[in-house]
Each structure stands twice: as structure tokens, then as C-alpha cells.
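Figure-free illustration: sequence to structure, shown twice.
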Amino acid sequence: MLKCSVGIMAYNEEKNIGRLLSALLGQELEKAKIEEIWVVASGCTDRTEEIVRDFSQKDRRIRLLVQEKREGKASAINLWIKNASPDILVMESADTIPEKDTVENMVSPFQNPEIGMTGAHPIPTNNPKTFMGFATHLLWNLHHHISLKNPKMGEMVAFRKVISEIPQDTAVDEASIEAAIKKLGYRVKYAPDAIVRNKGPENMKDFLKQRKRIQTGHLELKEKEKYRVSTVNSGRILAALFKNFLLDWRFVIFTPLVITLEIWGRILGWYDWRFKRKKHNIWEIAESTKELD
């Protein structure tokens, strides 16, 4: 039995935290066992803490850690790692929902001692018929196809407790963990059957907030750790795009617009890092991503 600790980093997540905890408590497990579920509430001003406390009264595995001041996701992750007991850690974004077998499919690969980290398969709940919904589905579909050959971890990850912390100022926490795990000689594995539902931005402002922050984080990771995740490689992105080309009017019209938005987001991120040396570890929330359909 592979025992694991689940960690959820939360900032004002009252809209989804109850659904997420219910989904985790309802996981169908055979080889994996959830020993504990930690929620790190970082500077929350809504009902997040109250909801978690209510759940903890029903199941003692649920535990709450409170940071009075919002210190950023990386800080919350480090606090969780410090308090977690099992040797396998499962980290999930607070604004996502796993399928019933997601934890099982993420943890079971750790039977192989060479595996140091696994990543789930995010599938958005956005309506793909709208432009912003199409953009979100396109990006995560490309992420999926690239990860099948060159694993990239995102939204929900599991890793061995062989690191004690990640850089407190990182804006790309999963990528920072990925870099640290691979540096120790472990393999990372994409788990396409480990489905996790998320929601992408519903407007361009939120889309650019996310893409700018992510680009800045990856540039910092490249500069400080000499590490690049597979999905920042333009060649891989184009290859996946052409491989999944669809003769559909939305694909033909929307795809060039999404590419333009992505390029603009990367330029904004590059400018923030190159000229402002701005860090996004405490980032501006993209509100339209916070309530799953």
C-alpha cells in the first residue's frame, strides 16, 4: 500500500474547496492510501477556513494550516511539505476536481523506485464553442499531447518527499518541483488516465494574467536552475498543433488568434522579467477560473 499526503494550497477558495474535499474523500483506491489531506489557507478572507474546519470534524484526515498573511503558493507548499508525514506527496490546485480514480492513477507508478514524480491529465470544463473556451481546450490539449512523449507536470502532481522546499519566490511551483526531482536523478511520468477537471479563463484579461505570470516564472526557472519544461519548446508546440489539426471553422479561425494571444502573453512575461525583474509568486487572481461548471 502506497501511503500519501494530499496538499491543497488555498486562497479564498470557498466556491470549490468543499467539492474538492468531497471528491478526495470519495477516491477509489487499491494500491494507494490517503493518510492525510492538508489544506494550507493562506491569507483567506472568505469562508475557506470555516468550510475546511467543518470537513475536518467529519474526517480526521483533513487538517488545516493557516497563514494569517498571504505569502504565495510556494510558501504554502513548503509549509505543507514540512508537516506532511508520508513519503509520497500529492499536490492539487484548489480550483480543480479529480475523477474518482485520479489519486490511484497518480500514486501507483511509485511502485517503480525510479519514478520521482507524476503529473495528472487536466481537462477543462469550459465550453469549447466559445473563443475563450476553445483557447483553454487547445492549450491543455497541446499540453496533453506533448506530455505523452515529454512529460510536463501541471495542476495536480505527485512526488516523493525527497525535497524539503522549493524556492519561495517561484511563480511556477510544479515546474520547480519537476526540476528539483529530475536533478536528483529520478524520472518523471505523465499519467494520462489521472483526470483532473479545471477551468480556464473566461476573458482575455484573465488569460493574459495567467500567461504573463507563467512565462515570467519559466524565464526565472531557466535563468536560476537552467531548466526548461517541455511545453515552452516552440518546435514541440507546433508539431503537436499540426498533428492535431482539425478541418473545422473554429479551429481554422480561432487557432491563429489563440497563438497571437499566447505570444503576447509571453512578451508581457518577458518584459516583466527582463526589465522590471518582477516576480509573480503572489499573483493576481484570475477570478473567472474559480468556479467550475
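We now fold a second protein in the same way, so the two outputs can be compared directly.
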Amino acid sequence: MQINSADINNAIEVLRGGGIILYPTDNIWGIGCDATNPDAIEKIYKLKQRIEKSGLIILVDEPGRIPSYVNEIPEIAWDLIDLANEPLTIIYPKAKNLPKNLVALDGSIGIRVVNHEFCKRLIQRFGKPIVSTSANISGQPFPQTFSEVNSIIAKGVDHVVPETYNNPISPKPSSIIQLGLGGTVKIIRD
């Protein structure tokens, strides 16, 4: 995939300014913001018409970034990341260095190591994780293509990444696994 530096730079400028972007991910179209900016996170909840209590997930560009945002990583997490052949979000207990309105009420945080080339490059250049949530009003279907994105969402973001980067690795939302400190594993979404 050819990635235009200007497209990355435009998205980074919006993220740094506290804005929201609409962008393709490993699987579906998402909306995101700087995962360390509580005001930007609040904008996402409002746009999605979603209650804050469930938290959001963040995307990182490589597994080595996870320890910056999780107090204790269950050992099995590394195996799951290595073995995943489709997008996988892991919910870790005890988030750290993240705004309160990003994490779930129990203090956990969902993190996915992104494989989508545009997303990976964006996060590398931005230098911080970005929030990722489906580009839909809460409760509506997930948009797999740009044409499926709700017009309220498309008009409510500050920047739209060009549709040319839409090349999903998987046509469905990521699998979600919740890990407990005692080694417990719970499949939330397969």
C-alpha cells in the first residue's frame, strides 16, 4: 500500500489539536483521537451517543508499547498477540497513564496491536496510542466500508482519512479477550 505522507501529517495535526478522525482500521471504519486527551475522548462519546462507563479501546503500533498503559500484563497476553491471525483486542486489568474517561469503570483497558499499514504508520509518527471505536452511533451496525459510515458520524469528525486506505484484514470487528491477573481468560467477542 502506498501511503502519502501528507495524509499521515493531516491526521496527526488533527489529533494533536484535540480533534477526531474517521479512518480505516484492520477490520472496520473507526473514529479515533489522541488516547491521552480527555477532552477529545469526551467528543467521541458525544458523537457516538454512548455512555462513558464501558470505556473505549486504544490502538498501539507494536506490543512493546503495551507496558506503558497497563500496570501488570498477564504472561498469556504475549502468546495471544503472537498467535493472533485476525484483529484481536485484549482487555487488561489496571490501566495506567490514561485518562479516567477512557478506561472502564473497573479500571481495565482494551488494547489492540494494529496491523493495518496506514494505522500503524500513523501511530508510529504520532508517538502515542489512538482511541479506536467503530464509526457508528452506539447500537447501530459496524461500517465495513466508507459508504456505510453514518452521515452524522462523517459530518461530526474533524478529519476523514482518504478512502483509498480501506483494505481490511478481516471483515468483522476484532475478537475481544479479557485477561485477569490470576491468569483467567474470558472471551467477550469471538
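Summary for the second example: The helical segments are 5-16, 38-48, 76-83, 117-126, 151-156.
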